[in-house]
Write a structure and sequence with these properties.
Elements (H helix, E strand, L loop, with lengths): L13 H26 L4 E5 L5 E5 L3 H19 L3 H27 L9 H52 L19 H6 L10 H5 L5
Length: 216
């Protein structure tokens, strides 16, 4: 006899539904026990009947399995949802990237590049920006040149003052004359100096001249 296949739908008869629930519940718990034993799995089953009665099965501890399940869900949600800090960093990066792209395009347009996609109004605004920028460049150039000229004038005035100060300092200095004086000692001459210099000739000591005798 071929076993008739039962259609999977709600059983209208209350008694038949209760009997089927009891049989299927026992079979479900048996299959869970076999799976836990064969595969070393941690299993917990919670079943509420139509009347609100609780049936549960766990091969270890129902509480530990439930806590593990809750912790797993929390970790999964934390991993799936980026943190607030990462969201802020991503938002900041996107904003900076957009601003960088806009600035790059603006610089290229100021250089005369990528002008094909601009409208007439945008070209007029670009022309006005260039005129204002050129005026600022000219003003800045003039201010810088004026500052450099003033600095050179001030430096020249300082050099002139320094030259004048040095000239006045040279004029106010007294003239120094070097006089070489030679002194001859009158007394206290040594015997060596007397011997080195012969005495002058004294004709009074020559008696031959006084007596009129012939000079030998």
């Amino acid at each position: 006899m071929v076993r008739q296949k039962i259609q999977i739908k709600k059983i209208d008869n209350t008694t038949a539904r209760q009997v089927t629930f009891s049989k299927r519940r026992r079979g479900l718990f048996k299959k869970a026990h076999e799976l836990a034993t064969l595969c070393d799995a941690e299993i917990a089953l919670i079943v509420f009947s139509a009347t609100g009665k609780l049936f549960e099965y766990s091969n270890s501890s129902m509480r530990q399995v439930i806590e593990r399940h809750s912790l797993h869900n929390e970790n999964k949600q934390a991993a799936d949802q980026p943190s607030l800090e990462l969201q802020l960093e991503s938002s900041t990066y996107a904003m900076l990237s957009k601003e960088l792209s806009e600035r790059t395009n603006e610089v290229r347009r100021l250089k005369g590049e990528h002008l094909q996609g601009l409208s007439l109004e945008e070209l007029k605004q670009l022309e006005k920006s260039l005129e204002v920028g050129l005026l600022r460049v000219v003003e800045t150039k003039g201010e810088k040149a004026e500052r450099e000229i003033n600095a050179l004038r001030q430096k020249g005035a300082e050099l002139m003052e320094e030259n004048e100060r040095l000239r006045m300092q040279l004029e106010s200095m007294p003239e120094v004359e070097t006089v070489a004086a030679s002194s001859v000692p009158e007394q206290g001459q040594s015997s060596e100096s007397m011997a080195a210099d012969p005495p002058p000739y004294d004709d009074s000591s020559d008696t031959s001249l006084k007596l009129g005798l012939p000079y030998p």
